[in-house]
Amino acid sequence: MYAQYEKNRNTLAATMNAHVQQDVFYANMRKYHTSMEYALDNYRIPVTVYEKLIEAVHEHMDTMHHYVGLRKKLLDAKELHMYDMYVPVVKKTEKTYTFEEAKATVKEGLAVLGEEYTGILEEGFTNGWIDVYESKGKRSGAYSWGAYGTHPYVLLNYNGTLNHVFTLAHEMGHAIHSYYSDKTQEYPYAGYGIFVAEVASTCNEALLIHYLMEHAQDKQEKMYLVNYFLDQFKSTLYRQTMFAEFEKKTHEIIEAGETLTADTLCSVYKELVAFYHGDEIVVDDEIAMEWARIPHFYNSFYVYQYATGFSAAIAISQKILNKEPGILDKYKQFLSGGSSKDCLDLLRICDVDMESPKPVEDALEVFAKSVAQLEEMIYN
Ligand SMILES: [Zn+2]
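Above are the sequence and the zinc ion SMILES. Below is the predicted complex in structure-token form.
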């Protein structure tokens, strides 16, 4: 696949170069110090949030490298390549859930959020919020949408797998976030920013994983769940931060008055892949072209929010599971906040300060613990 991109490497590099130049031009015109500062100012996020995310992930790179090594062992691979990072290492559970069972499971998994929350969940389940199954001409995937003044609408293409049970919990997280914000805020402040958008959905998934782990019937099911969680960390926290770092570096090159050639883009990207995956992986030349197929790079300084949002969600879910006094009220306030405050201040309601490295560090600790847990189950 990358050979095809490779054939067009100079065109793709010229396109990327022009895009980054445009960012830098706009930032300069508006008297910002850097293009990153300009992009982040859209939601009034200071650049330190971005920098601290990268720093914290760097400091916990050994855990990721350890996980890569574990993957190599589990696959019994002589060599591990980037394409092996997506091969399932734990056997899938064959278990399927009817939609009735899925709703019941999600409701039980989210019971820790209190009766009011599960009451709204039930309201959504029984009052036509959800378009459940595939049908001819229906679009794929899943999302939550709606308009101010109506209840949220959720689109699913439910197929009975455990993955789709998580999707239900995820989308209902978005839906109930909108429900609370729409109900509490006037129209101009009801919508919420991307920086906080994935918090409610991911928090629900983390709570559901915890519940399912506690109720897993055998080791196989537990292993599947831990591995599911680890995959999320890998793809959301590490991989998106790697992308964020790539954007930082490419913008700095243009800001230094240089040009992004295909060679430059490939070498910057390949170095990052090697750094993020460690010595246990063979970094093939082909992967150096991956930057060319990531559409988000044309939406500059956007993807870091997946990593910060994920960390904030993990932090909040830990507080809820630890039954921190007052956390449920605070969380409801957060969900009701819409865009009435800056994103960072909304998260501060739940005592999550994204200007400190703590939430990211704590999330990475959860990752480290989960890696250890998987290892323990495999070797004992
Ligand atoms: Zn989502």
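The beta strands are 80-81, 130-131, 143-145, 153-155, 281-282.
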